[in-house]
Structures
1.
Amino acid sequence: MKAHLSRRYHFSASHRLHTDAYDAAQNFAVFGKCNNPHGHGHNYTVQVTLSGQVNPVTGMVCDLAELDEFAQTNLLDRFDHTNLNTLDCFANKVSTTENLSIEIHRIFQGFEAAHLEQIHVEETSNNSFDYAGETDLAPGRI
Amino acid sequence: MKAHLSRRYHFSASHRLHTDAYDAAQNFAVFGKCNNPHGHGHNYTVQVTLSGQVNPVTGMVCDLAELDEFAQTNLLDRFDHTNLNTLDCFANKVSTTENLSIEIHRIFQGFEAAHLEQIHVEETSNNSFDYAGETDLAPGRI
Amino acid sequence: MKAHLSRRYHFSASHRLHTDAYDAAQNFAVFGKCNNPHGHGHNYTVQVTLSGQVNPVTGMVCDLAELDEFAQTNLLDRFDHTNLNTLDCFANKVSTTENLSIEIHRIFQGFEAAHLEQIHVEETSNNSFDYAGETDLAPGRI
Amino acid sequence: MKAHLSRRYHFSASHRLHTDAYDAAQNFAVFGKCNNPHGHGHNYTVQVTLSGQVNPVTGMVCDLAELDEFAQTNLLDRFDHTNLNTLDCFANKVSTTENLSIEIHRIFQGFEAAHLEQIHVEETSNNSFDYAGETDLAPGRI
Amino acid sequence: MKAHLSRRYHFSASHRLHTDAYDAAQNFAVFGKCNNPHGHGHNYTVQVTLSGQVNPVTGMVCDLAELDEFAQTNLLDRFDHTNLNTLDCFANKVSTTENLSIEIHRIFQGFEAAHLEQIHVEETSNNSFDYAGETDLAPGRI
Amino acid sequence: MKAHLSRRYHFSASHRLHTDAYDAAQNFAVFGKCNNPHGHGHNYTVQVTLSGQVNPVTGMVCDLAELDEFAQTNLLDRFDHTNLNTLDCFANKVSTTENLSIEIHRIFQGFEAAHLEQIHVEETSNNSFDYAGETDLAPGRI
């Protein structure tokens, strides 16, 4: 009996899309208003999807309190109320939500109580991104 | 032309997470505040995903009115405004949303007008669970 | 590093479910109140899911401004504030959301900057449809 | 102990904004794409707000089942899956959401179990209208 | 410069609508399925609206961290994951959302850093209740 | 026939809560994590509520296309994808959502086609602020 559980976390952060590989004109051409030097920001919603056997005694895939504690330490304490561009993980990468999803996927691979299926990040109510790790298999919707 | 359709149903119920396999201290350690002896409750949202060929004459995978009637009789009339722990299906199983998803999946396998792909249950706006049946294939997002 | 991005577009349209292959009684039996001769309508939400390698310089799967421009010309300018039944694509097909999803999938195959994974269309807050093209692979959730 | 209760109802309908008082050019100038001769449509959400003393025995302002029955007969059976322009109430009035709110307010004045405070109608997720009847008092938010 | 701030809190609880003043048949007639002896439950959303002068130095009506601490102690620790009927405040009152709103209004009158305007409680996505205290003034929408 | 219409606009921005009137320790004590020197950000939703007589010919309070054009020029072009602290209006004021609401209220007083009732700004899904101008009258919910 393999089930999936998904849990949503919320944080607010600012960022600026900019790469040193381009000059100012190229940066503006590629990133548009997201290249504003003073930055802008979002309320990000992260949905973590895990899978595993349903424990026949507890009826659970894993302990949500344990997952929340992991997320508090490794996700929210690091990202909430920050400027993403100042974080180590974006020192050499543009702070797009694609790269953010990949970084959060890396983080939750450290949660060992269930199998990480995918990270889903909503940047606005109309924009979202998914990352399921390197895989040959075309993922379904992710 | 195979398409998927998803339809959402809503019910309100109470439950208590508790197993006779554990003593009081173990139950509290595993289930925390969800082990409160008097129970608590949720507005549950169930999303049923079905697939099938799109009928070339009607343009439909199946008749939604027929699906709604099935859901009324087999899902809503059984679960809405109940205490899940008093239902037969939870006599020997903890009423977690994982187990609830599996039970609802069992129910909708009885709907024969389309192929059941998956059951998605939202317990709160931040918590959801999916069950797609026993399968070797790593399901996509589910 | 293959990621998915999903973007939502919104339009309002009217339609009537009706096929000339059936007589009036059959149409009413199959389509019910959706067969009302004067039509009815919806706020449709379309979610387009694309996949691709994350560009190592820009950190993006594709340019969202380019996607928005494509969607404006090919989706919104054609469907928003229309009666779906008057459009060429529904001249010989019932304007169900299944058929609408298939048509929108056909449209976004013309967007070449990323791989089209799937089209998701919400007709109401409780009803949605997905089309991922002809495929042998059982799609995940889609 | 005077409290307010609000209950939401949902229906889908089509309409066309057009007045015989204007010629074609004026209609288009005033109503734009909403003047499309074939119409368009929406998922309308109606929120009815009632007030009254909280009954000291039942703890209720009024019986919601009674309100639902009234709404089914007088609101949903009349408006759901219709073309608003074909209804008597819009024979001589443009079917704007302002006029729809006023008409629904007129209807719910017939519900006598509590005092009608206001009708709120959402045409899309970004557009809403409120009508509280003729009143000297500047209503609060309504 | 008087502004209003509203903050939402969420808890899950069960309840049963029942009064000892009625016999079984009367209870069922008045409360219907909500009278189920084993109870049912909801995800409740509470929105607290406060008003006050905007402090010219801090730009704030009051300190949200202080409000959150008050809400944690006085609202969430008391109501979350409980059976409302077992709480002192419902010992002699039916646990309707009208009475719940009045009780929560009483609680937040103890928060002294701003003026309490109103309590709004959502029981389901279609049902909500508001209480603004005893007042001669017909509140607007509240 | 006086009705209210409300229209929602969305923008993304960053900000930092900080006042030169306080030293670093005081700023942190008052603003907490919102005082992070590198800032953070939000998806802001602004709801503008206007009132007016329903025009007996057009059935409208005012022209929404005209309102959208005003909002594009005066709200979105100024605030979207910016750092609020770099704007003139926050040169001498903390960029709290209270002050943002007051500034947006000032802006929409320039829209002359209907009476401005109130500005509602959502900073996150749990936090919102309202400003209705200087008034003796206790506003309802606003």
Note: The beta strands of chain E are 2-15, 40-53, 82-83, 115-124, 127-131.
2.
Amino acid sequence: MKKLINSVDEFVRESLEGFERAHGDLVKVNYDPVVVYRADAPRQGKVALVSGGGSGHEPMHGGFVGRGMLDAACPGEVFTSPTPDQMEWATRTVDGGAGVLHIVKNYSGDVMNFDMAADLAKEAGIQVTAVVVDDDVAVKDSLYTQGRRGVGGTVLLEKLAGAKAEEGADLAAVTDLARGVVANVRSMGVALTSCTVPAAGQPTFELGEDEVEIGIGIHGEPGRERIPMEAADQLTDRLTRPVIDDLGLTQGERVLVFVNSMGGTPLAELYVVYRRVTQLLDQAGVQVTRSLVGPYITSLEMQGASVTILRLDEETTRLWDAPVHTPALRWGT
Amino acid sequence: MKKLINSVDEFVRESLEGFERAHGDLVKVNYDPVVVYRADAPRQGKVALVSGGGSGHEPMHGGFVGRGMLDAACPGEVFTSPTPDQMEWATRTVDGGAGVLHIVKNYSGDVMNFDMAADLAKEAGIQVTAVVVDDDVAVKDSLYTQGRRGVGGTVLLEKLAGAKAEEGADLAAVTDLARGVVANVRSMGVALTSCTVPAAGQPTFELGEDEVEIGIGIHGEPGRERIPMEAADQLTDRLTRPVIDDLGLTQGERVLVFVNSMGGTPLAELYVVYRRVTQLLDQAGVQVTRSLVGPYITSLEMQGASVTILRLDEETTRLWDAPVHTPALRWGT
């Protein structure tokens, strides 16, 4: 295992120290419990957004803390759920009196711990709602999850709900918006290689020299099938068609296409995938009016990509375009 | 070789097609000769900036085309210099009557071809100046280069000179600014793995399971030495100390620190490196007032990182903060 780390135990903390040094104008890091939060928190009267999950998916979620997106993120150890005390601390710290929305990816540990944190925060008098993201069409009921897993749709939801909260919407309206996003976003990914969790010291799974895993999870958990390597267009079809079908997209609709790197795949390859996704949507008469291409929800150094499609309406288009200023996503400011 | 491509021959073209589909509001792509250029080119009265180089380093350079940065970029095949006809076409297309600055990384092919293109453009009555970036302190006179190689400093120079041109400075002033940046920026990188050029089909070089290459070039060309893997802090010291020394940084000076991924290294590891770079600068009494962390000048899927330090003054700080709107770098708009 060759990684730019000093020790397995200190990896997450040291990475956060560097993150805070680079982005101290936007975020602060609390180290006990570990929480990344907006430097200007709490924002009085604004609904606050808290997310979190295992580390190893950077820039998600800490990179999305800032104006127009998250108020706080709780990083667990690599591929490990954060604890309820992190989430409770975050919730208390960023609440500005208008309540807090928990954005939870659908993994059993995350769901359970956010649930406990919400109970604790409610006991302290804070209004809390939650939305569970389960956009991965690849599999139901896998190693880490009951139901579908939460993947790339989470990034888009955090942007859109963040913009809604920034506009001054109340907790019910921000929660409704977030639930609407969950209903209209789907994803699927492919792995070309495994990744190595530092604490394990060896690859999470073995994949042959000429083999890929279709429907991979962001922790390297199994997908739909292993198949021999194919051309990018064929692989992209295998990811995109189930997403289009599951969304029930029809002619004339508008979408945002998000092509994400699992961490180790070069940007130039992502654009080859993006090209094919948009060709398929052209054929279906669906208009691609917004896009995002790059590494936003990763699995350490895993090679591969995921395709996320979000059905857009007038409101979500406006919220996507709204200003955002975070370490990893920024425009309009 | 597992890559998200359809064919070796069509890789660059198809990637650019996807790029244009994703960023058609900002850039256009001409396919014969291959040039990425601002959708609103030429900008009358503005000095135009043209760069270029082999593909495989994305987002550089095409991702830096847009307001406040480049007017055009000429992508060659993977790790192969673009041709003079690409550069000449780009120069003619983006010239708005105020002249064109060529930003050239110091590789023999790039330098020779930009030279020929400049001669052709001058014959056509266009004012052309050039700046050659040679910020890599690792080695002199290597496989692709006479003198030092041009690496991460190029990204910073393109931002700063782009801002200067956007302000309305004339060709002499933009060229002077660019030369000042070259004099004040230094870099060095480390590779943990090789990368595979599609046309070659196998890794550019072999690196042992527990070995790293200090001073690697962005085409996988040899660096200073191969050593056994070390902790991130030790490796970072090996990159940063020569950079600080070569720049002659002294107490009280201000710098921008740029920690770059070679392509396959996760963001979380880059922040571990960034943490250590800033610790070393703290010790030297040097103030880190700006930063950039992420994959901006890559070598396909190579794992590793590079450290670039730029000495800042009032003008370059202001130019760094100026609005930029490109596919890969955006703020203030």
Note: The radius of gyration of chain A is 19 Å.
